[in-house]
Design brief:
Helix content is 34%, strand content 20%. It is α+β, with helices and mostly antiparallel strands. The chain has three domains: 2-52, no CATH class; 70-143, 2-Layer Sandwich (Alpha-Beta Plaits), CATH 3.30.70; 156-229, Ubiquitin-like (UB roll) (Roll), CATH 3.10.20.370. Helix 4 packs antiparallel against helix 5 (128-142). The longest helix has 17 residues, at 23-39. It starts with 8 loop residues before the first strand and ends in a 19-residue tail after the last strand.
């Protein structure tokens, strides 16, 4: 399926997902997939196949023409997740929650009190701050929005921000959210001046979403006005370069 990958086919291990823009197009795509399987003498178990779906569960997400949402089964698992009583349980919770971080604005900052528990030598101590972080993450995930799918028409909008806790950004197209992204500051970034932190947020954004942005036009919005002068600045420090 190499020539069809990411055009109308996604393959993950032994799962094949066929997507199309119209019923007529989908008919051709499904026929192509079945003919390729026959040609290569590969088999798909009919009882495990589903055809002509308007929405499909795939890798923990529900994908439809409206966009992409979390699988209700995963939402239920998060809702029922008990309060962690050990570092191992915190790690398990953050593993599941982190998989859906694209749905949560400022995920890294919200999770900071919990991620601190996983640092080497950190004593496990559950307090009010960690309880609040745990419950807030659960609530944000349970009420996660529908994310839109890129239309292929370019004109992306990026909103980036930085604080002393972390970097955050939003990728949008036609006024709709495609994904959120965030990360905590690295130890050496804590002492960065505001200007460099805001620039780091922009760089982080462009790197993490480069597969969407490559060869596409985009508008970048930041609340740090002086960044717009960086291209006319005569001298740049090593970080800015």
């Amino acid at each position: 399926f190499h020539e069809f990958l990411d055009k109308f086919i996604i393959v993950f291990i032994d799962d094949i997902l066929v997507f199309s823009k119209s019923k007529e197009e989908h008919d051709d795509h499904v026929r192509t997939v079945l003919q390729t399987l026959r040609q290569e003498k590969l088999y798909a178990k009919f009882s495990k196949c589903e055809f002509w779906l308007s929405s499909v569960a795939f890798l923990g997400h529900i994908v439809s023409a409206e966009g992409i949402t979390m699988d209700p089964a995963k939402v239920e698992a998060i809702t029922k997740w008990p309060r962690p009583t050990s570092v191992t349980e915190v790690r398990s919770f953050l593993g599941l929650a982190g998989y859906y971080r694209r749905y949560v604005e400022g995920f890294s900052c919200l999770a900071l009190p919990l991620t601190k528990l996983m640092r080497k030598g950190e004593k496990f101590m559950w307090n009010e701050e960690r309880e609040k972080s745990f419950e807030e993450l659960k609530q944000r995930l349970v009420s996660a929005p529908i994310l839109t799918l890129p239309s292929g028409s370019g004109r992306f909008q990026i909103y980036s921000d930085a604080s002393k806790k972390g970097l955050g950004c939003v990728l949008m197209q036609h006024g709709k959210v495609i994904a959120y992204a965030s990360r905590q500051l690295k130890p050496y970034e804590v002492n960065y001046p505001t200007h460099d932190l805001e620039l780091a947020a922009v760089v982080f954004t462009l790197k993490i979403w480069r597969h969407y942005l490559y060869d596409e036009s985009c508008d970048i919005f930041t609340d740090h006005k002086s960044l717009k002068y960086i291209f006319t600045q005569r001298e740049l420090n090593m970080r800015q370069r």
